[in-house]
Write a structure and sequence with these properties.
heterodimer, A: alpha/beta, Alpha-Beta Plaits, B: 170 residues, alpha/beta, Rossmann fold, 6 helices, 7 strands, globular, GTP-binding protein (chain B), P-loop_NTPase (chain B)
């Protein structure tokens, strides 16, 4: 059979057979070749390669990092480190700009927080040491104590007249006077802000004690006629308040009359400037000034601050450990505390060795008892500035007299606590409320809180104001109150109670046209027509006065548009 | 020599030109945002009067309201005087002078007052506002000036008159 088939036919048949058997494989091979070429092209084109790998690489990396963090870090560190180094070297400014808003703020906040905590811890520690009275040496005064241990900085002190907001005295530790904004205007604005906060939050006699701005605090210590404002950077210790209260109290004692009679002359207060400067330099710690202000030494400043604090802490510890009069000190403090809680008592104590100087006031019996107790305890006491308060009964009598003068029934009530007087009661109007408070405050040696005085009838004020700005108009030659005017008047009077009007002048007016006698009579009749309405509404006739006014031709009609009218003056 | 310090208030309806008058007159001024924030802005001006000590006027520019009685009276405390401003082209602002003065005197009963009829550049010589302002000032028996913050007319004279009234009440 083999021999019967020609050779060319045999080859053709083989090809056909191959065609039949391998056609499918050929097509597959061709497709694989195309795919391979496509893959090679994709691999050689970086952008296309990234596009392909992007969906999987993030998941893969995450999975890998989670499975073997150490290995990944080891593998990536050299590459990443090098890449970051190169990038930083090439674009330092750009990287700094990008990172500063985030890292700068975070670092600053952390450092400030850490410093604040450290300062508070030190302050608490020192306070504990002082109250326990370690050791036996003489106890340093509070200013010295503050200077030694408190890392804060008093930048400026203002003494400001409380009522007017005018600056009485000022001290600053700034060397460059141009760097200080106008202190008179600051005093005014500070007072305005205090008034605003009192009004906005209906705080009555309570007031603003502290304003915080970034790392600056404005601490306010209020006295009867003036207040002190301290601009402080850093964190003052818990005893700072006590020290500034003392300062305020001394200023009020020394300048009481000048402060009370202040009318714009600031010369009497010139010496206070020196006192305030001494205060700043006494509290001021030079090392911290350098740390705060030293631009050139900025790098060293934090180290100096920490080193200084540690040295001071050790020194303070050593100092207090050597003190030996703890028991005596505790006895004094306990005695003072006992009398500080007495009604109306308000005083401070300066101590030099065994000598005590008392500043302040207390009721006579308490004052006598305290002085006796201190002498019994072996202290030598100077009580010249420790004044006697009148007894409460005297103040209440005074208040009753004042209430009578101002027609306040029932009389206002007086309540006293350790540091202030409170007035309560009801008054007919705002003006009486202010008068009562001012007159009592002028006689009171203690701060006065008077937001307990309530105005009983705000409607009365409204009624009186409306009447004083009201006029009723008449047609020429007529004294007849037209129905519209009468209706309006009755409506106005029904806003309040006419019996609340203490005095009313009804003025009938006319112009000078025609017979003068007739005009006078017309004006009187107009007044009477209006009076009738008031009487019908229940007003007592004895409180009403009728007047007439004839306007000459040259005379203007005043604030009202015509001369033919009736107007009022109500109180 | 230290000047005598005095607090004065600048009062009047909203939009009468108080702040513009201040800008014409004072040396130092805070940002206007204080006015909208707390309702008052403090400025200062030192005035030399012949034969008298210098006076440092601390001027409290109190935010205006269209209704008298809306301003916190606390801002008037301790003021030695007030310049009460109205707009000569707005009758309502002239009519409100009296109640504003009454509010001020409730707190500062001895405070001296000078009236300023502002925007004089906007109204003619026989404008009803100008006549009403003069009449009101005469009725109230108070010194008055027709002022213009735009061209400076009478601005300094108005402040100086107030200053003299405060220093020499006679």
């Amino acid at each position: 059979m083999k021999e019967n088939i020609p050779p060319n036919r045999s080859s053709e048949a083989l090809d056909q057979l191959k065609q039949i058997l391998l056609q499918q494989e050929k097509e597959r091979l061709s497709t694989v070749e195309e795919e391979l070429l496509e893959l090679q092209a994709r691999f050689n084109d970086k952008e296309r390669l990234i596009e392909s790998l992007d969906p999987v690489i993030a998941d893969l990396l995450y999975k890998k990092i989670m499975e073997s963090r150490a290995q990944m870090a080891e593998a990536l560190a050299p590459v990443m480190g090098e890449a970051l180094r190169t990038q930083i070297n090439e674009a330092k400014d750009d990287i700094a700009d990008a990172l500063y808003p985030v890292i700068g703020k975070t670092v600053r906040k952390s450092v400030a927080e850490a410093m604040k905590n450290l300062m508070q811890a030190i302050n608490e520690r020192i306070d504990n040491l002082v109250s326990k009275g370690f050791g036996g040496r003489k106890r340093p005064d509070r200013i010295t104590l503050l200077r030694e241990v408190l890392p804060f900085h008093v930048q400026q002190v203002f003494l400001i007249h409380r009522e007017t907001g005018l600056l009485l005295s000022h001290a600053s530790n700034r060397i460059d006077p141009d760097a200080i904004p106008n202190e008179d205007m600051i005093s005014g604005m500070l007072t305005a802000i205090r008034e605003f906060s009192q009004t906005a939050f209906a705080a009555g006699d309570q007031s603003l004690h502290e304003i915080q701005y970034d790392n600056l605090n404005i601490i306010i210590e209020e006295g009867k006629y003036a207040y002190l404002a301290f601009v402080v950077s850093g964190t003052p210790g818990s005893r700072f308040k006590e020290v500034i209260k003392d300062l305020e109290h001394k200023i009020h004692l020394a300048y009481y009359k000048d402060l009370r009679a202040f009318s714009g002359e600031t010369e009497p207060f010139t010496p206070i400037g020196k006192t305030l400067e001494s205060f700043i330099s006494a509290v001021h710690e030079p090392m911290f000034e350098e740390a705060l202000a030293g631009q050139k030494k900025r790098g060293m400043a934090p180290l100096l601050v920490f080193a200084g604090l540690i040295v001071l802490l050790v020194a303070a510890l050593f100092y207090f450990l050597s003190m030996d009069n703890a028991g005596r000190e505790a006895e004094l403090q306990s005695l003072l505390q006992q009398y500080r809680h007495k009604n109306g008592a308000f005083f401070s104590v300066e101590r030099t060795d065994n000598r005590l100087i008392l500043n302040g006031q207390a009721f006579a019996a308490d004052r006598r008892a305290l002085l006796q107790a201190l002498e019994d305890a072996g202290f030598e006491v100077n009580s010249e500035a420790f004044t006697v308060l009148p007894p409460l009964s005297t103040m209440q009598t005074e208040l009753n007299r004042l209430s009578r003068d101002l027609n306040i029934h029932p009389p206002l009530t007086l309540i006293a606590d350790s540091a202030q007087f409170y007035l309560t009661g009801e008054v007919p109007d705002e003006l009486t409320r202010i008068k009562a408070a001012r007159r009592f405050a002028a006689q009171s040696a203690l701060p006065l809180i008077w937001n307990g005085i309530r105005v009983t009838s705000p409607a009365r004020e409204k009624l009186i104001n409306s009447l004083n700005s009201q006029a009723l108009y008449f047609v020429s030659g007529s004294a007849r109150l037209n129905s519209e005017s009468e209706k309006n008047l009755r409506q106005l009077l029904s806003m309040g109670n006419v019996r609340d009007i203490r005095r009313l002048v009804i003025r009938g007016c006319a112009d000078a046209t025609g017979n003068p006698q007739r005009n006078e009579e017309l004006a009187r009749q107009r007044a009477r027509a209006v009076e009738t309405v008031f009487l019908e509404m229940g007003m007592d006739r004895s409180r009403i006065t009728l007047q007439t006014k004839i306007f000459t031709t040259e005379e203007s009609s005043g604030v009202f548009p015509t001369k033919r009218r009736v107007d009022f003056k109500a109180e | 020599m230290s000047p005598i310090k005095k607090k004065i208030c600048l009062l009047g309806d909203v939009g009468v030109g108080k702040t513009s008058l201040i800008r014409r007159f004072v040396e130092n001024i805070f940002d206007d945002s204080y006015l909208t924030t707390i309702g008052v802005k403090v400025s200062q001006k030192r005035i030399s009067l012949t034969g008298e000590k210098d006076v440092l006027m601390m001027i409290w520019d109190v935010e205006g309201f269209n209704k008298p009685g809306m301003v916190s009276p606390n801002y008037f405390m301790g003021a030695a005087g007030a310049m009460v401003v109205c707009d000569l082209s707005r009758q309502e602002s002239i009519e409100n002078l009296e109640p504003v003065i009454r509010d001020f005197h409730r707190i500062s009963n001895k405070g001296k007052i000078v009236l300023a009829g502002n925007k004089a550049d906007l109204v003619g010589a026989s404008h009803p506002g100008r006549l009403l302002f003069r009449e009101t000032a005469r009725q109230l028996d108070l010194p008055f000036f027709e002022t213009s913050a735009l061209n400076g007319q009478n601005v300094a004279a108005c402040f100086e008159t107030l200053c003299r009234k405060i220093i020499d009440p006679s």
